[in-house]
Amino acid sequence: MPELFQMRICFKRESFLFKYCFNVKTLIHTSIIQEKLKSKGLKVTPQRSGVLEAVYTLRNHPTAEQIIDFVREKNPNVATGTVYKTLDTFVKNGVIRKVRTADEATRYDGILSNHHHLFSTDNDHIEDYENEELDTLLNDFFKKIPLKILR
Predict the structure, then answer these.
(1) Which end of the chain is more exposed for a tag (fewer CB within 10 A), N or C?
(2) Quick check: 95 and 52 in contact, CB under 8 A?
């Protein structure tokens, strides 16, 4: 996930006593989202930007319903189907990943780098966990013992 920097920039014109402030986080966030979509060959639309902003902002691997709620705070006219189609498009194009929990709930992850998920059944919280030693251990293990998929 892109690092977001938050800083407040304020200035005032000497001839006026007005103070203008804006949040740079929003500007950087918007440019990161637009660049991410363009780099994957996707058209930048308000709906796509809103969905990706939701994934990045909500963190903790939000559900589609959480993403819909977030998007509708800014744009109440976005259809539920549009959000689901956008999420599917993002997954297919490698913008985000789909994560399934133990209870088969679908969540979305904006972090594409190699990492693990620690899931709490007490509160449905998913924590990202990075550990190169664990990666090596797992890679070595599955090279020796083939993975058996049980259905």
Answers:
(1) C
(2) yes
Of 23-27, 39-43, 83-87, which range is least confident?
23-27
Burial class (CB in 10 A: 0-12, 13-18, 19+), 69: middle
Structural domain includes residue 84:
yes
Distant-in-sequence, close-in-space partners of 41: CB < 8 Å, separation ≥ 6: 93
**Domains identified in the chain, total number:** 1
Q: Is residue 98 part of a domain?
A: yes
Classify burial at 71, counting beta carbons within 10 Å of its beta carbon; exposed 0-12, middle 13-18, buried 19 or more.
buried
Could you read off the pLDDT of 110-148 as tens digits, one per residue?
Answer: 888 887 777 777 777 777 788 888 888 888 887 888 767
Residue 85 belongs to domain with CATH number? 1.10.10.10
Q: Give the CA angle between residues 76, 77, 80 to the nearest 5°.
A: 95
